[in-house]
Amino acid sequence: MSGTYLGMPAFPAAAASSTQDARLRGNLRHATHTIRDKRARAVAELDDWARLRAAGAAVKDRTLRHLDHYLEQLEESVTAAGGQVHWAADAAEANALVARLVRETGEREVVKVKSMATQETELNRALAEAGISAYETDLAELIVQLGDDLPSHILVPAIHRNRGEIRDIFREQMARWGRPAPENLSDAPAELAEAARLHLREKFLTAKVGVSGANFMVADTGTLVVVESEGNGRMCLTLPETLISVVGIEKVVPTWQDLEIFLQLLPRSSTAERMNPYTSTWTGTTDGDGPRTFHLVLLDNGRTDTLADTVGRQALRCIRCSACLNVCPVYERAGGHAYGSAYPGPIGAILTPQLRGTASELDASLPYASSLCGACYEVCPVAIDIPEVLVHLRERVVQGGRVTRRGVKTVLKPAKGHAAERAAMRAAGFAFDHPGVLRTGQRLAARTRRLHPRRLPGPGRAWTDTRDLPPVPAESFRDWWRRTRGEERTT
Amino acid sequence: MSSRDVVLARVRRALADVPRGEGYEDPPVPRDYLRVHGSRTPEERVALLAEHLAEYRAVVHHCAESDVHLLIERLLAQHGSQTVLVPPGLDPRWTAAAGPTRVHDRAASTARELDSVGSVVTGCAVAIAETGTIVLDGSPDQGRRRISLIPDHHICVVRVPDQVVDSVPQALERLDPARPLTWISGPSATSDIELDRVEGVHGPRKLEVVLLSEG
Q1: What is the pLDDT of residues B42-70, one digit of tens each?
Q2: Do A30 and B194 touch (CB under 8 A)?
Q3: Fewer Cβ close by (within 10 Å): the C or N end of chain A?
Q4: A286: Cβ–Cβ under 8 A, 6 or more apart, which residues?
Q5: d(Cα A44, Cα B197) in Å, to the nearest integer?
Q6: Interface of B with A in 48-67 (CB under 8 A)
Q7: Check: complex ipTM more than 0.95
Q8: Number of domains in chain B
């Protein structure tokens, strides 16, 4: 891993190698199975889960349908509360903006709360290029950063690492970034957590600039919400003099009351807790308590393109709980890195190709990174029909069509790799439309059945790599029907 | 065109399918979910809060108003704190018997100064029984957010049953969004190692909740 998603291979190639990694498979199986049952129990505690889920989806849909209104309202509320609101059309703009805001403070270091938006924009790399050191403070993000690695899970970016690997990374790398790991550090999780506490303490106490994302932004009050467990979020949100929050535009909810839905849905779906250890909310700045300067950077970076697709739009409801990753049979076996994006798993398979487009081989392969089993839809706390969007995006990749890219409507060409599939579908469509052709074809297939190969040649080979070609019966159903019942009916 | 105009124009173009004239409050949100999960007497509510706090490794103490100073003295002594941080509006009787030196939070107190303090005692704004959560809102008896964060030992006093609500929706109704809020459910924890919960990372590793009843 080199700390960037650029140039990563398409999902099938990446998964072909990751599924051979026995240690990765073991780590993921252990972690995802641990959380699955716990989530189910946490959800079962609430009799009204289905109604909360419907309400959560409805709030998000309503917000998305009037997103311009709610963003303007949010901007007004945040500004009135003493915050400064900035807008970024893409990742480069957001990164440049954050770098400028940090430079204006005169500082060269920032402490970071785990944030998906800044993973997506690869902010740390951009800050490093601008001579600014960004310290990740979430335990899993720290493991990823120290290991010069990439995140592989939304909630637990270092889920691909087991305790022994984490201990090795701490021992080898902590000294390079600050306080070294304690002597004789074992792989007991409590000791590893203690090592992180000691390592980051100094950074928290001296930090002048914090960078965060947010789980929710409330339009009518201008309140931002960060949901976390460790307290690193509280440190970054309250100790620095300047706070810069980079948040996707879809994270807005209309009212304070709406939080009553999401603060019930998110913790139970995410860490399977009734409530996560710490939730911080802040509205602009508060005299004498917390940062004196607050910047909110509202990020588009493909979200409006996603919004323009009336089927794919629902992906923007996502509250980044990661329940869909934890139940996904494909994610469990392939691991998060194979998805080549900050957003792995089922949600990544529909979000990444919409945020980035399907121009690259990797992004065009993501809608296929699923068996369409539907487990993701079932656990999604905001009822995103992920299989529906996957099929929709597959159709888009194969057939092309009208899409919006960087705000401009354009017509997507059909992907090259699917020419054989398209030809086969066209032929099938023609045959089903012409009963005579179908009958002749079926009879021909039946007569030559002994000559059929078990594996298809040419472009069909990929399909039969993992399946046997189904045997063709000696007589088609239509012929059998005609021969037996069909005649009865005519007499 | 500014980035603001670019993004807002993109949003509007993307929403061409939304009928003109559809209100910002449409489509309506079905709010038929429960305000409270189950019905409880005030005593049952407090008992549930205690149970859920303990489940997430907070240490729960029941205490009458008349004895609270003795309890707090004992908790501070058990933790071995030399100093205890006191928010400006904390009831002075609560720490009247405390052995450790009382440190008053001042605006100028740096994070490093606070890091040398052993314990902190605060009140709270509201507590939620169903989730085992206490919420601080920065009122004078709770102080700035940093004082309940940096010391390793937090004693939080909840007045029962008045400050206890059943549910998250009820808590939000009582809270003022303009104030900076900290929702606390147990001590600092992480699930980052193999998705299993471990207590004790950056926030206070020991959270003691005093359920204070009148009398």
Answers
A1: 999 999 999 999 999 999 999 999 999 99
A2: yes
A3: C
A4: B138, B179, B180
A5: 20
A6: 52, 56
A7: yes
A8: 1
